[in-house]
Amino acid sequence: MIVRAVQEKMAAILFNCMSLLRDIYNQVKPYPTKTKYGLPLPKKCHVVLTDDEIGDRPVLIIGDVHGCFDELNDLISQAQSRINTSDLFIIFVGDMLNKGPKNQEVLTLLRELTANGSASAVKGNHEESLLREYRSMRMNSDYKLSKKYQYLSTFSAEDFQYLQNLPYSLTVPKINSIVVHAGLVPDVPLERQCLIDVCHMRNLVYGESVFGPVPVAHSKPEIGVAWATLWKGPQHVYYGHDARRGLQDLPFATGLDTGCVYGQCLTGIIIDKNGDKTFVTVRAKKSYYNNNE
């Protein structure tokens, strides 16, 4: 009995030591600087929106727009009517463009709102994809855009520069929140999150390391478990990228991709200065794309 008690005590000590080492490693491991397509990094990968930038305005966080300009206008109008003010600060969770019908119009509005201090956005995997296409166009004058990317021919160099400099995360202390496109791995500091994961992940699987089991990001929703179900704060995370699961309203995370471009809904959430939250949703006018990915 004494030997077994000692063994259990030693096992507990070893487990605690390994957990401590893993936490230390997460704090000191090299900063991730790689993007999926080898794209240049933005000026800042992680941006903090100060209280002064937002002021007393309610915050409206909007899910994946994917070029659905008409639905975006309807959603903003609905939010303004719901709280009886047109003075909102709008945050987009990425994938503002691609697949939908009016990409140039969405980008023009986004740039106008950003320029007048009324909006910010993070980069989504589809912004990365179109920047990859833009790079190919610049490197090869004979490069032919596929049908999916024909709309890029109307974009200006300034449009592409704006998209290139979108950050991968926005931290919003006023509402104790972080906005990313896809997700975050628990217990890893924001600045040390893998940028590919932040932009592409949906799930977590557990892999082995010298420190024991560690969560590893995965992009396929059928492998592992939804990362947001394991996120325990303290900051609330708002994200998109997961239309198959639809609206995800969890204690410390809210997924806002409700598949507008696939004929479903465009969803946003209003957070007022008191922290009260209200969902707003508009139905898609039609299905614009048939590949629900």
TrEMBL record:
Matching entries from SUPFAM superfamilies are given as: Metallo-dependent phosphatases
Q: Name one GO biological process term.
A: polyphosphate catabolic process
> What's the protein here called?
Calcineurin-like phosphoesterase domain-containing protein
CDD domains xref list: MPP_PPP_family
Q: Which residues form the Calcineurin-like phosphoesterase domain?
A: 58-185
The GO cellular component terms are: cytoplasm
Q: Which Pfam families match?
A: Metallophos (PF00149)
Q: What is the lineage of its organism?
A: Eukaryota, Metazoa, Spiralia, Lophotrochozoa, Mollusca
Q: Name one GO molecular function term.
A: phosphatase activity
User: What gene makes this protein?
Assistant: 106075257
